[in-house]
Amino acid sequence: MAHPALLTVALILFAVTSTVTTVLAASPAEMRGRAFAQTNCARCHSIDRHTQSPLAIAPPFRTLHTKYPIESLAESLAEGIDTGHPTMPMFTLEPDQINDLLAFLKSLK
Question: Which of 25, 37, 40, 77 gives 20 to 30 Å between its CA and that of 6?
Fold first, then answer.
């Protein structure tokens, strides 16, 4: 039977290795998109593959591709997303920001 402390260390190492591998595999555009999402979106939306959104009505980013083709979001991001609920701020992104955010969203599929 494994010692509990040894098992805990093994789980921590697995989690760290998995996170480092994911970060190392990410393109520069994905990393910039993730940074944008962390700064501007994570207060309400889940921006990872596992957690629930902090705001219940805000869909997790990992599910957006099931509702919208990711590429179709480019126009909305350029013109400003208007969601019909008052808690979503209006965002208008620059072309480079759009490409970065779309690259990040695609990485969550």
Answer: 25
